[in-house]
Amino acid sequence: MDTAYSAHPAHPAHPARPGGHRVPTGLRAPFSGRTWREFLHLCLNLPVACVMFAYAVTLISLSAGLLITFLGIPVLAGGLVGARGLGALERARARALLRLDVAAPEPLRPSKSGLLAWVGAVLKSGASWRHLLYAFLHFPWALFAFVFAVTFWSVGWALLSFPFWYWLAPSYVTLPGIQLWGDGGTVLYLSPTVTAMATGVSGLLMVLAGPWVFRGLTQVDRLLVRGLLGPSPLATRVIELESDRGAVVDTAAADLRRIERDLHDGAQARLVALAMDLGLAKEKLAEGQADESVARMVDEAHGEVKIALQELRDLARGIHPAILTDRGLGPALSALAGRCPVPVTVQVDLARRPAPAIEGIAYFTVSELLQNVAKHSAAQHASVDVWHTADRLMLLVSDDGRGGASTETGSGLAGLAERLDSVDGLLVVDSPAGGPTTITAELPWRG
């Protein structure tokens, strides 16, 4: 791996200003862009929901009426495609006004070409029926949310502005006193001025509460859009597995290329040179020239054999070390730490061994992280901790180096994170500039 450690602190994209905003959040909220975007979304809910509801009712009625002529099924399929189009507009509206980015549902995949295959794919698609269900469920909620939001917001601003109208145009605003108490002899009235002030305070409270009311109302819209107009959890999982399978294939191909390169440039080249030297020595022996040069060739060939054998052992250890198979993760990591130029403390707390595949991934994860420590961290000491908790195998590799490790695209840690993700694992990097660096890896426990 070639993850670079940097001693320079990262520059934040938006540095925090001392003191932040001088106006409290609660007072700024009624004038924020988010509040008015959410209010606009609630206002648009009713006309959009009316169109979608009318479309859904017409579709169901028309297709049901045409079933007797065998046209109902194609009409229903075409209508479901139209519902998916309306759902795409709803996702765009949610993205623009609610800042909710929901992926499109899984595409239609007919088993073969032709109208019947296309109709079958539409009718079998759960996403198509969820879009139609959204049109029915969203209509009553949109009606309620529209009426409540518009009434609440308009009444709040009207009550808040009432004292100003009362003082600016008293001849046009009549406000009788409000009787609070009376026993026939003594009567207590609330003056019109106090009543106007109380009205303004009530409006202010409603206006300040408006953003949070809108946030709660639009939360239901977010749930409906995310649950009915996006991809199903099963389809999302299938896409993740397909992506993970691609990562596994790429990793396997990269490992094969590495093994081929190591064999070609290392042991294979040495064995070729060894064969040539032994051929020359054989020719000289056949010619009766058994002098010192032949002995020197044999001695060099013997040295090349030793080096080639060592390279083959290293290559085999890189594929899967024998000590890992024979003795488990603890001794294997201890042997790995012994070959690291940085002093490493290893602590493994496992009552039993995980599955061989998980054990191998854990070993090579620690191996690559220790290579990073040795190459880039300038650390004086490192530690490796391994333990089992619940259904996860936990790995913690830390060092006292200069920090700056990152999982950004193109780095070695990014590739390692992809490998762990392909088996439902996780890689978390905590490496501030100046150190220390702590990298936690989680793997599923499969005993």
Describe this structure in words.
The chain has 447 residues and is of the alpha+beta class. It folds into three domains: 27-228, no CATH class; 234-319; 328-444, Histidine kinase-like ATPase, C-terminal domain (Heat Shock Protein 90, 2-Layer Sandwich), CATH 3.30.565. 63% of the residues lie in helices and 10% in strands. It is built from twelve helices and seven strands. The radius of gyration is 36 Å and the shape is elongated.
Short description:
This protein is an alpha+beta fold and 447 residues long.
What are the SSEs and their pairings?
Elements: H1 25-28, H2 33-65, H3 72-97, H4 115-124, H5 126-168, E1 178-182, E2 187-190, H6 192-228, H7 233-286, H8 292-319, H9 322-327, H10 329-338, E3 344-349, H11 356-377, E4 382-389, E5 392-399, H12 412-421, E6 426-430, E7 437-444
Parallel strand pairs: 3-4
Antiparallel strand pairs: 1-2, 4-5, 5-7, 6-7
Label this structure with key terms:
447 residues, alpha+beta, Heat Shock Protein 90, disordered N terminus
Q: In whole angstroms, how far apart are the ends?
A: 29 Å
Instruction: Indicate the low-confidence ranges by residue numbers.
Output: 1-19
The mean pLDDT is 77
Q: Biggest β-sheet: count, sense, barrel?
A: 5 strands, mixed
- The value of Rg in angstroms is 36 Å
Topology order in helix (H) and strand (E) letters: HHHHHEEHHHHHEHEEHEE
Strand percentage, roughly?
A: 5-15%
| Structural class by helix and strand composition | alpha+beta
Number of domains: 3
**Record field, number of beta strands:** 7
Helix content range of the residues, please?
55-70%
- Placed side by side, the strands forming the largest sheet appear as 3-4-5-7-6
Number of helices: 12
The best one-word shape is elongated
